[in-house]
Amino acid sequence: MSRKRITEIFPFLLPIRIFERNLFYQIKMFFDKNKYSKTFEEPLDYEICQTKTKMINEQSGFDIKYQKNKVENLKILSKTMNHVVIKPRETFSFYYLSKKSKKFGKYKEGLVLINGKTVPQIGGGLCHMSNMLYYLFLLTPLTIVERHGHKVKSLPNPDPDSLNGVDATISNGWLDLRVKNETDATYQLDITFDDEYMYGKILGDNPSKEIATIQNDNLKFFRKDSKIYESVSVIRIWENIKNHQKRTEKLYDEIVEVTYPLEENIEIEEMP
What we know:
Layout: H1 6-9, H2 14-31, E1 35-36, E2 46-54, H3 65-78, E3 85-86, E4 90-93, H4 94-98, E5 109-114, E6 117-122, H5 127-138, E7 143-146, E8 152-153, E9 178-180, E10 187-193, E11 197-204, E12 210-224, E13 227-240, E14 246-258, E15 268-270
Parallel strand pairs: 1-4, 8-14, 12-15
Antiparallel strand pairs: 2-11, 3-10, 4-9, 5-6, 7-9, 10-11, 12-13, 13-14
């Protein structure tokens, strides 16, 4: 039996704990010698990569209002980082930019995962943005400095074509998504919306010499200690635009606990 955190025993202490974590996190960033991206410019000339993601997950099992609130939250969040440029030797920090969201609007209740359970919370659903950005960053030469995958997958993918194991959870004061530009090129985020999708692009000041694609390999499900897990390999393939030569690299293996009901036709391997 795991010990409860002090904020679980005394919930009224949680706002104080959050304030403390944010304060220490910002102090740490101030002294860590990184130059964080904070400049916003008109869209750069070249598209490096792009994607789109469906915002409403109708299979959440919760009132659809939380999905609609998430859309509003994402639009507020996007204003903190849309068209930010990541110059050479700069570091993009999701936390650094998103902490300025209050001047663009007030977050509503969306769904978040806390201690393995999906619950409504103010500002819920922002991981939808960090997930999309992480996928885009993998399609660029930018170096992933900090990324945290979800430990529990409580909802099925809203889009059946979505990749598995390509996600990034964030938590103010605890978990960040950071990438560093160790190239000589400048990159930029471009985020737009329509009624159904959120669209993301990485723009650049020079055209790409290679195009990247991300794939899954060895996707399987297994049961261990009465829990079901998803295991998958994440692969990146680079293709040279001029001669079409390809090179493949395995990025990592991802294992996550699955708590939503799987379809009956999915095979689950029993592990000792």
